[in-house]
Amino acid sequence: MSAASQLNATLRQEYPAVARMLSPLGQRAAFPRGIPFQAAQAKKAQINATIGQLTDARGQSMPLPSMAGLIPGLDRERSFLYSPVAGPTDLRQAWLARQRRIAEAPDARVGLPVAVHGLTHGISATAALFADPETDVIVPAPHWGNYDLLFTMHAGARVVTYPFFRERRFNVEGLADRLAATGGRKAIVVLNFPGNPTGYQPRADEVAGIVDVLCQHTGPSVVVCDDAYQGFAYEPGLAPRSLFWDILERSDPERLVPLKVDGATKELLFFGSRIAFLTHPATGAAEAALESKIKCVIRGTVGAISGPAASMVLQTLQDPGLDEAFAKRREILAGRYRTLKAGLTTLPSSLVPYPFNAAFFAMVGLPPDVDPEAARLLLLEEQSLGVIALAGSHALRIAYCSIGESQIPELVRRLATVG
Q1: CATH 3.40.640.10 at 3-31+85-317, yes or no
Q2: pLDDT tens-place string over residues 324-368
Q3: Identical fold between 3-31+85-317 and 322-418
Q4: Measured in Å, how far apart are the chain's first and last C-alpha atoms?
Q5: CB atoms < 10 A from the CB of 171, how many?
Q6: What is the mean pLDDT of residues 254-258?
Q7: Which residues lie closer than 8 Å to 377 by C-beta, 6 or more apart?
Q8: Where are the beta strands (DSSP E) in 283-391?
Q9: Can you give the residue ranges of every domain in the chain?
Q10: Is-above-0.85 flag for pTM?
Q11: What class has domain 322-418?
């Protein structure tokens, strides 16, 4: 029996929903016993001649002085030698500890997060393992446009949508209808709360209905919680944590696989980094089997995460002042949110703001006779205002994260000229 077949047998026994959802690539995937595997086994050998990285006689790094001088505060070995394929264990543990604390879920049964090369890579790895031409990928409209590319370019899956809002709340009925329409086919549901481009986080009283729909579906299904903007919420009464944890509490391992994809880009305001994490519920033998498959995809694409970036993220996670520093920056963003929300109420009635309460963005719907791309170019060329045109939603997206609070009244004044 091949290594992949053994992993598949383990998953059928220990986590049937994962086995049922695997794509053809996912079924074939198994972390090879090549150089990284053998080098890891030999890590404590007295003489270790396994891996192709330049070290001194004691296994320490030998960086160029000019480069070493650029990162004096970082761990040299972590920064200048290869990272483990799944990421350094202490980094993964530190990230999981933070996520548990944020979610107030100290006892939730989850595997150790796998470090991936950015949140986009985490979703791409998910697509590789679970999506194929027979899979429906269910996303709301509007949604982050890169989902279409991630699930269709290599996996060839079908991306199907439903309206994001119903009566200015999340359209749980639309999600239920889309799931029912799968007719028993494999389904991947993507939830991005709070999200891009809507800037919307469900209220606490919306969570139960969403979780009910997902957990009552007969499956098989994977629910991907894209938590890129976790922690950026500005109104009372919103869902206090990622829906991953609520879905996890009720998920049936025969039918449902919840996944959490998050990272340092927004949560640690490290926009130049490509450090993210893929968290799954598999434990024991199922965890080892699923991690082998994830590592196979990583090894076959980006190889491993960036060592210097991983070192910076770990040191930041260990900083006792992290929460306070993050809160200060979130409050700056909350001030921009409040000013923009008030300002949008003064727009002409032909410009209709979408509901928003979190993350970095707001959307404004345009009159039926105004083309979004034409409006964008008009604002750019005549008002020197840059916004994003969303043709599918007939709207413009404002990234208020990237402007000062004092600039917002003028932004609103210029925006009103397209109404």
Answers
A1: yes
A2: 999 999 999 999 999 999 999 999 999 999 999 999 999 999 999
A3: no
A4: 66
A5: 17
A6: 97
A7: none
A8: 352-353, 361-365, 388-390
A9: 3-31+85-317, 322-418
A10: yes
A11: alpha beta
